[in-house]
Design brief:
The chain starts with a helix and ends with a helix. The chain has eight helices and four strands; from the N terminus they run ααβαααβββααα. Helices cover 38% and strands 14% of the residues. It has one domain. By secondary structure, it is an alpha+beta fold. A hairpin with a 5-residue loop joins strand 3 and strand 4. The protein has a four-stranded mixed β-sheet.
Length: 227
């Protein structure tokens, strides 16, 4: 029986047992991330203040929303729609960034800090303008737009290039909201649904951001229809 037990242990370990301890993941002080995020916020360029990014320059870095960057910098969140969650979806954030913000585990936060600091560059989705009446609770049925910039930062927190992009509510969803808004004020549920639609449209827009723009015969300044 003893020989059988030894044989079973040997068989179980044949593919995966090792006497070596598991490799320890690199760690870094999360305060270094706070310092970097603060520098990045300080270095947000003015419109047209940086070269335009080529599509391929948007791939391969750590991604962050403007809201998450403010949280990493440990600064007070400004009360403006440009930093609302519905135009700063956490799905586009690098998981390491969310771990630093959300986790209470010291080791996990240090490991996440090391991972984030090892990124080759950072791409921050910086929302500049939210001109969308119904999601803001305003009874105005004009076609709204959200304007943002994808800011590529180097590892020192300096902007190397920028890509401007726009999006808006789905036309069918806008028509639905107009039909539902037959009172003096926008129904809070309609407002919330339109906010969530903007969130979904942003995720779609970002997913296609690194692809070359489709050729179109529309005027260059007709941004809403092009997107």
């Amino acid at each position: 029986m003893r020989e059988l037990g030894i044989a079973l242990v040997a068989l179980a370990c044949a593919g995966g047992c090792s006497s070596k301890p598991a490799a320890k993941l690199p760690e870094a002080d999360p305060a270094r991330v706070t310092t970097l995020a603060t520098t990045m916020l300080r270095n947000v360029p003015v419109p047209a203040g940086a070269p335009e990014c080529k599509f391929e320059q948007l791939l391969g870095g750590a991604t962050l929303t403007r809201r998450t960057l403010i949280e990493l910098a440990e600064q007070e969140m400004i009360k403006r729609p440009e930093v609302a969650e519905w135009v700063n979806p956490t799905e586009v954030d690098s998981p390491a960034a969310r771990t630093i913000i959300d986790s209470k585990d010291v080791t996990l936060r240090r490991q996440a800090a090391a991972q984030l600091l090892s990124a080759p560059f950072y791409l921050v989705y910086h929302v500049d303008l939210v001109d969308t009446p119904i999601p803001l609770g305003v009874k105005d049925f004009k076609r709204g737009n959200v304007g943002a910039r994808a800011l590529r930062y180097d590892t020192n927190g300096n902007v190397s290039c920028v890509m401007v992009f726009f999006w808006g509510n789905d036309p069918a969803k806008t028509e639905w909201a107009m039909k539902k808004s037959d009172k003096a004020l926008i129904d809070p549920e309609v407002q919330k649904e339109m906010q969530q639609d903007l969130r979904r449209q942003m995720l779609k827009r970002i997913a296609a951001l690194a692809a070359p723009a489709a050729k179109t015969n529309l005027p260059a300044d007709d941004r809403s229809e092009r997107l």
